[in-house]
Specification:
Layout: H1 56-59, E1 74-77, H2 78-86, E2 95-96, H3 98-104, E3 115-118, E4 128-131, E5 133-134, H4 136-144, E6 148-151, H5 155-161
Parallel strand pairs: 1-3, 2-4, 3-5, 4-6
C-alpha cells in the first residue's frame, strides 16, 4: 500500500453544495433561499416575529411574580439522612455538611443558598449536622435523637449584624 493509494470509503465524504452558479444548476439565482428580502440575507434570526401581527408573547396576559430575593436550597428530610446512615453512605460519628451529603449521594448538588433540613421521617442516629436552614420539626427530631443542628450564618445575616 502506498500513500497515494489511500482513499476514503465510498460515500464517506459528501461534496459541498455549490449554490449561485446559474439557473441550470437548480440552485442558482436565490441559492435555495426563496426570494429577496431580510430572510434571504445571512445572519438573520426573526424569532417571535409574526409578520406585523401582534406576536403571541404580547397578546397573552402576564401572570405571577418572580421574587428576586427568593432562596434556592437543596432540601433533605431527616428520614433520608437515616436511610443514608443505615446504608453506610454517611457516618453518623462525623460532622455532616453539604459537601458530605453530595459525596454520599443524598443530594445531587448543593443549592445556591445551601442545604435546608426538613422534618419528614424518623431519625434514630445521633448526628452533628451543619446546614443553611432547618425547620422546627427537623431540629426537634435531631435533638430528640441526641444530635445537634448548626445553622450557618448567611451573608445577608452577617451584613445586617455589622
Amino acid at each position: 500500500m502506498k500513500l497515494n493509494e489511500i482513499a476514503n470509503k465510498a460515500g464517506a465524504v459528501k461534496a459541498k453544495k455549490r449554490v449561485g452558479r446559474g439557473i441550470g444548476s437548480g440552485k442558482g439565482k436565490t441559492s435555495g433561499r426563496g426570494v429577496k428580502g431580510q430572510k434571504a440575507r445571512s445572519g438573520v434570526a426573526i424569532k417571535g416575529f409574526e409578520g406585523g401581527q401582534m406576536p403571541m408573547y404580547r397578546r397573552l396576559p402576564k401572570r405571577g411574580f418572580n421574587n428576586p430575593f427568593s432562596k434556592e436550597y437543596s432540601e433533605v428530610n431527616v428520614g433520608r439522612l437515616q436511610q443514608a446512615i443505615d446504608a453506610g453512605k454517611l457516618d453518623a460519628g462525623t460532622a455532616i455538611d453539604g459537601a458530605a451529603l453530595v459525596a454520599s449521594g443524598v443530594i445531587t448538588k448543593l443549592g445556591k443558598d445551601g442545604v435546608r433540613l426538613l422534618g419528614n421521617g424518623e431519625l434514630t442516629a445521633k448526628v452533628e449536622i451543619s446546614v443553611a436552614g432547618a425547620s422546627k420539626g427537623a431540629v426537634a427530631a435531631v435533638e430528640k435523637a441526641g444530635g445537634n443542628v448548626h445553622i450557618a450564618e448567611t451573608k445577608a445575616a452577617e451584613a445586617a449584624t455589622e
